[in-house]
Structures are given as C-alpha cells and as structure tokens.
Amino acid sequence: MENVVTNFESPEISIKLTDEKLYIKTLSSNETFALRSINGIGIVDLIEKYNQELNLYNKQKSNPLSIAIGGGVFIFFGLISIMSSIGFTIFCFIIGIILLIISSNSNLVAPNLQSAVRIMISGMNRDFEFDKSGSYTTQIAELVIKVEETLTAYHKNNK
Predict the structure, then answer these.
(1) In what order do the strands lie in the sheet with 4-9?
(2) DSSP letter, residue 37
(3) Pair 13, 25: CB distance under 8 Å
(4) Quick one: how many helices (H) and strands (E) in the chain?
(5) What is the pLDDT of residue 47?
(6) Distance from C-alpha of 16 to C-alpha of 22, rounded to nearest angstrom
C-alpha cells in the first residue's frame, strides 16, 4: 500500500504525492506519474499567454470608448440641428442614446496571470494551470518543494 506523503486540494487542481507516484487532477484531466519517470517539477508563470490576453483586452477596451464618442457626436449633431429639422434631431438623439447604451454595457474582464505546475518527464514538459491570484499559491509552492525532496530521496535510493 502506498504511503501518502502530502496532499493539496483547490478548485482548479488537486495534487497527491505518495512514496511512489504523483497524482494530479484538474477540471479536464486526471493523471498519474511514477516518481521514477519524473526528472523535475516546478512552478512557471505563463507570461506569454498573459501578454496575448492583455493585448486583446486592451484592443477590446478601446471599442466601447469609440462607440461612446460616436454616440456623443450624434447627440451633438442633434443639438445643432434642433432649429432646422425636428425629424433629423429626433433621429440623432435616438441613435446617440442607443450608441451610449451599447458602449456602457460592455462587460470586459481583465486577464489574470496564470501559473502552471510543470512536470519534466524525459525530454518533455507537462503543464497543469492554476490561477496565480488564488490564496493557495504558497501551499502549491510548499507542495512542489515537498515533491522535489521526495524525488531527490527516491532517485538516491534507486541508484
């Protein structure tokens, strides 16, 4: 029977270390790694992914502003034409108000920096993502240290 060395649970990732295996469960997968096949483990920040999401967010963030400016222009033209044509004035006010409502209803969410527990296995890496802003980040770091210690002890005993 395997002896559980340490265990970690969060909404995104669950990691259990025994004296012979590492079990990792995420929302989309459930994987088991034999300690003899693991060359290393660590935590990496997915900065490239974050930068791509941040660029997309910044581009999308400017869209509601330009729509709001367009709505303001229509309302301005409606105010200017108030004496000449009441139909054009009403049209400009309606379009301007619609554009302002559309621009105020944009619900963009700023991206978060994601991190991953990276398992290095014979020439390849396997990443298991989690949210860096979670309150359990230090617990994951402590677990990784414990896995490294267990790996070191395991590889020393089996040489």
Answers:
(1) 4-9, 13-18, 21-26, 30-34
(2) G
(3) yes
(4) 3, 7
(5) 92
(6) 6
pLDDT tens track for 108-122: 778 888 888 899 988
Q: Extract the tokens encoding 64.
A: 């509601």
Q: Could you report the per-residue pLDDT of 42-88, keeping only the tens digit for each?
A: 889 999 999 999 998 887 777 777 778 888 888 888 887 777 778 88
- How far, in Å, CA of 132 to CA of 109, rounded? 16
User: 81-115 as b/e, with b when 16 or more CB fall inside 10 Å?
Assistant: eeeeeeeebeebbebbeebbeebeeeeeeebeebb
Distances (CA, A) of 44 to 7, 12, 94, 158, 159: 20, 16, 51, 28, 29
Pull the structure tokens for residue 1.
């029977």
Cβ(5)–Cβ(18) below 8 Å: yes
Q: pLDDT band at 1, cuts 50/70/90?
A: low
Question: What local confidence, expressed as pLDDT, does residue 65 receive?
Answer: 74
Look-up of token digits 């999401």: 53
Cα–Cα distance measured from residue 143 to residue 150, given in angstroms and rounded to the nearest whole number: 10
Q: Contact, 57 vs 118, CB < 8 A?
A: no
